[in-house]
Amino acid sequence: MIHVSVSFRSEDGAAFRVGAARATQRAILTCAPTRPNAGPSI
């Protein structure tokens, strides 16, 4: 039971990190067009 709970916790943590990464990427993509420096920098 302990190992299972730990595995679920680790999966939730990974999913949370992935979700946060996707959220940051979306925010960057949405904010990039509004910034003139974002185009040339890429």
**Biggest β-sheet strands, sense, barrel:** none
Structural class: mainly alpha
Order of helices and strands: HH
Uncertain regions: pLDDT < 50 for 5+ in a row? none
Strand content: under 5%
Give the termini separation.
Answer: 48 Å
Q: Give the C-alpha Rg.
A: 17 Å
Q: How many β-strand stretches?
A: 0
Q: Helix count?
A: 2
Taken from the alpha-carbon principal axes, the silhouette is rod-shaped
Q: What percent of the residues sit in helical stretches (DSSP H or I)?
A: over 70%
Round the mean pLDDT to the nearest integer and report it.
67
Key words describing this protein structure:
42 residues; mainly alpha; 2 helices
What is the compact description of this entry?
The protein has 42 residues and is an all-alpha fold.
How is this structure best described in words?
The protein is mainly α. It has a domain at 8-32. It is built from two helices and no strands. It has helices at 2-31, 38-41.
Fold topology:
Layout: H1 2-31, H2 38-41
